[in-house]
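Quick board copy: two proteins, each given as sequence then tokens.
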Amino acid sequence: MQAQVEQWLKEGKVDIFIGYKKVDGHVMPHFFTKENIDEVKDLVAGQAHYSLEKVATKVAAEHPDMKIGILLARDCNQQALHVLYVWNQLNPNQIQTLEAFEASSDSEQPEVSAPYKQQMGLGKSMAPKDMEAFDHAERFSRWMYEFSKCLKCYGCRNICPVCFCKECSLEHKDLVRAGNLPPEIPIFHLVRAVHMAGRCIDCGLCEEACPSDIPLRLLYRKVDEIVQDVFDYETGTSPDQSPFSVLGEKVVLEPIPINE
């Protein structure tokens, strides 16, 4: 892996390689460049849970002609790149990837929720069908319990590899007023859930980042399920698939004045 990155940098195949370096015992994102080629010996892999694709998006926005190498440390990283290609946030011709992940295991024990959460909320190990076993009233009350714990820290948005809007609706004063804790519920999380439609790759980083133990992955899995059922669109499976292709080649909706 180190030899490959070193070769890419020396040959100019990439101008920068975004990977991981161990710093004081902690694995951290790092930019490897030709000017600092000796640092490549410190390049490490592993299941580090940082969004290198998000870093690449920010680099590409400032330097659109830069050739960027990215370490694929998790099996969902390629899906994230596909989404970013589809939404024109990254140019696949400017990206080189290096796989260094191990296949994820299904043998991990599901997390068991504490008694009060089992009684009032929704467990992280739930599937959408498990949630839908509750009637509408109980489902609503359980989600409201979960949302009421929100600290509005924006950790879910900030860590997400496919959140790239320059102006975020979650900071729009007409939708989410500043200074309120918890934020208006359920609008804060429902706005973000809508924006995850056709984007979420189920990487789980939002849920890991949440300090309030909100089952965000369950919410976005339900959104993804709806997108698949209604539009037959599987997020992140192809760099060529447009989220708008399901609407057809021609716009058939007729604009109507708002006062009518």
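And the next:
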Amino acid sequence: MVNNDITATSEVRFGEMTAMYNSSTADRAANTVSGSRVFLYEVVGLRQNEEADNLSYPIRQSGSVFIRVPYSRMNQEMQRVARLGGKIVSIRPLNGGSEVNGKAMLTTAGSNVNASTAPSEELKSKKLEEKPMTQAKAKSDIPVNIYRPNAPFVGRCISNEELVREGGIGTCRHLKFDLSGSELRYLEGQSIGIIPPGTDKNGKPQKLRLYSIASTRHGDDLNDKTVSLCVRQLEYKHPDTGETVYGVCSTHLCNLQPGDEVKITGPTGKEMLLPEDPNINVIMMATGTGIAPFRAYLWRMFKETHEDYKFNGFAWLIFGVATTPNILYKQELEELQQQYPDNFRLTYAISREQKNKEGGRMYIQHRCEELAEDLWNLIEKDNTHTYICGLKGMEGGIDEALSTAASAKGVNWADYQKEIRKAGRWHVETY
């Protein structure tokens, strides 16, 4: 059973990722005609490294990364990606050499990534720079890697607010950063990278950590000049010494004071984007800080006024937490439910306070089992998008609940899930 309690060891967002997968040799083509050809692999789902896999807490998987591979090493790189749990989603030929479109390959939290991501992405970013953020809607206009690890934007902390109320577990902060003077723009469902100060245990500069953005493209101040994050401080016991260990980047962020500088990269990510169609239905299932992208969705749907977007569909958030004080953004969420009862449904799974039908703790998978019929009736509509963000272990329970509901209608859930995933209506970002 998966515990969705918000403990310091289980609620790790992108932020506590460690650097991994150094394939510098993949850039050296063999001295043959075929070996001099270079290909660009787009890879998703990479784990971090063997050391991270053995930790007692989950480390989030990476999003899409781009790896240059010479012809002579294609099989080896495919095997390496498979060993790291990754999946190659596309392969495209390049012209070879040590650069692509004049951009050097560089290491980020995930792999050796092309500084321009891909030739088409650089063109997309250039197009975005010529238009206001409010028009960045189509997938062809997704902003990616405007700021890269070797040249981050240095912003400043505007505010740092505690989200866990008295009696709750741990600390979780809502941070707002000033983007004035930058070209950074982003969409709901994307992430940014944060580079903490200092060096790692090997004396090398700290690698970036990725965090899901918790604000809409216009920012909390609605002026297109801020970005917000929801960050829980990582805290766990060292398995050998029993010493309390604090996450490098999450601790850095949680301790920021207004005016402090912060190094920002990105944005990245396409898996969790919210469609621009205002008539869709949206199911959101989150544990802990997995609420971050869903806060952005809901604020765009209900709290902002747009000339070109007015949400007319139905949104349902199922939110798993440990205790009532750990319900992040509780007041705002419940106000939305009261103001928009016909368009927004809010359901909690509070593990340490509520009981499932067996009398045990209520986790999000149990709540989905109770509500499986309602969920299925909504999921089978052609205009429904389902998003899951948080602890990876909840996926199995959700699948089991929906499988039962689908079977009652004569549908095989596994096959149906593949169909809606292929159609772009099933979105998962878990760790």
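Board note added afterward: The first strand starts at residue 38 and ends at 44.
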